[in-house]
Amino acid sequence: MAQTAVQGQCDPAFAAVRDVFERHFADGLELGAAVAVYAGDRKVVDLWGGVADRRTGREWRADTPCFAFSCTKALTATAALLLAERGAYDVDGPVTAWWPEFGTHGKEGTTAAHLLSHQAGLPAFARPVSAEEAADPAALAAELAAQEPEWTPGEGHGYHALTYGWLAGEIVRRLSGRPVGTFVKEEFAGDLDLWIGAPDDVIERGAKLTAARRGQAPDGGRPAQDAPVPDASSLERLAKAAADPGSRLNRALNNPHPGKGGFNNPVVLRAGWPGAGMMTTAAGMAGFYRDLAAGRILRPATLREAIRPRVHGPDRTMVLETAFGLGYMRPASPFRVPAAGRASAFGHGGAGGSIGLGDAEAGLALAYLPNLMGDGLTGDARAFRLIEAAYACLA
């Protein structure tokens, strides 16, 4: 891949972030990408480069949004937590208090905290669901309410890769009367370039996701240092699960199926799946974390409680060690953070390598969006190197 000129602005004190970003293009690890960093309320990095659409050669621009996969979960969780903060429900109270139909097949004791921390035991749908069906959040929530859990809620955690959105999102839909995307835009993201359910003009100018060509390793290159990475036995279990079409991992990741065009499918992009359906610019997602870390969306006490790890250890879906608060990932192999941020960083990664991160103690907010797909399950090394550089610049 030819070396690509990186555009945008970067504070000289954060030149190391630009250096890493440019090196990724020079090493052939990117097609198109963007990264944005805030130090407090000051935007210190806003960079982009490369090709937004490999087929047409269209360039990535300042306002190019990209599909962010599971980075969406952090916004859905924030919407649910904002309603809890306003007294709409009790996070640690039973789901049946506001969703009576959920109390079937031994799920009566499920709490909202279980929904928000991947403990609900509903990591996958029991039947194949199409992209068209997935555009109806009420119908998918009803299906999950009627479904038998794969483990007793609260007795273990497993990544709810897609079902999370229709579980945690039902908190928002039932208690605000609005779909997640509408609530997010109206309550705390109105001035940001992010959409959970994108309009057609946003889809039209968006980056197109591209699978890596044979022999190309977008997550490779120079190794990430000082990052929690899975051990050999964990990687072996992950590879075995990924190769098994009937594994919980595959059932969770691939149903609903996005249909023709994969996650470039406009049906998916318009629907705004609340677990993996956001289109955003890097500056837009970093702006969300800036406001969240600064206490402008949730009260600081609410955020501190939300990022407190509720689960940490073997994940029943991903077969790796994962850690979650109430919707936010905490540092573990799928969410790699250098030592400087390991006690206080939170956020969420997405398939393909995208990531959003906030750190209220450090005053840091960062977002990275690539359209060349890497391996997001074990934490993308490109993202880690950018995060590592940002923390080093703060220091």
TrEMBL record:
Highest rank taxon of the organism: Bacteria
Protein name: Serine hydrolase domain-containing protein
UniProt xrefs under Pfam families: Beta-lactamase
Region of interest (Disordered), ranges: 210-231, 243-264
GO function term, MF aspect, one: hydrolase activity
Organism annotation: Actinomadura miaoliensis
Domain called Beta-lactamase-related: residue spans: 21-385
Record keywords: Hydrolase
InterPro entries: Beta-lactam-related, Beta-lactam/transpept-like, Beta-lactamase/esterase
PANTHER family: BETA-LACTAMASE-RELATED, BETA-LACTAMASE-RELATED DOMAIN-CONTAINING PROTEIN
